[in-house]
Sequence to fold (345 residues):
Amino acid sequence: MNNHKPWRITLDTNPDDCNLHCIMCEEHSDFSKTQSMRRKSGKPHRRMSLRLIQKVLKEAAELGVREVIPSTMGEPLLFGHFEEILCLCRENKLLMNLTTNGTFPRIGPLSWSEKIIPITSDIKISWNGATKKTQEKIMKGSRFDKMLENLNIFVRKRDQYAELTGHYCAITLQLTFLETNIYELADIVSLAIHCGVDRVKGHHLWTHFKEINSLSMRRSAESIRRWNTEVEKARLVAETSKTQNGKRIRLENIYLLCPEKPDILLDDGICPFLGKEIWVSAEGRFNPCCAPDKQRLSLGDFGNLNEKSLDEIWNSKAYSDLIEIYSNHPLCKICNMKIKRKNSI
Fold:
């Protein structure tokens, strides 16, 4: 029996659907062979069935889950059943926590804001540069000026809705820490403050491909020292500036690293997912976390939600055992997602 209770669930609804080719993306980077190999082998697009979504969200609510994240590997706003997920959130009294690439495809930022903001706790917008050159180099296919316009629309609509109803949806800029954007970290924080964003959050690079190994800020003692210098600059901006409503921006996962221990993110870091969050693949596989797909398979096979209930898997011996021993697992020791014990997610 698992004594932990989940509070959030992520559904990898449509990992094969994206309109950008971010260089660090496991699925859609120009360096990734995933999509081309799937096409050559004749595999269909992975898209979660509405039946499975209905089943899983009902069972998640019964387990005490409070938030739902649609796909984080593809662009969720391209998913054909996205509006149905919004309805299911209302039916099951769940809030949505959205991660999007900021392009707001299909119907545009204004229409999406009207649908999303009333049911959402936080909107995390992928943002990887403070300048057009850097943003568009990392997030290939994006248009910096258009994304900035979209962000301003969303913040404005969020503020209007909060004033009318009292429901406040936080807005986060979320980035991957890279050699390409590290010198713009403080400027990204400044931009977020200027736009009325609540939080800047990020994580260190998963080096899925040899071509991006040189972009990791954890690859050497020297790169970590440069990272630490830029962290201090970003913190200073956050501490000395306020948004237009008088709030201070929150920085998350932006902390100093030890140059002598490049393989260790945090000596006492903890997993933000095990025993707290549920991850479900498009095919229904229960996943313990968001580590790259090939690596997280090493954590074990916990079952498929097309065949088992969420309660059955969550309280299984296999999953409970992983919670107890994960800190000694080779993948968990080097994980880029570990957080400080008092760090919110």
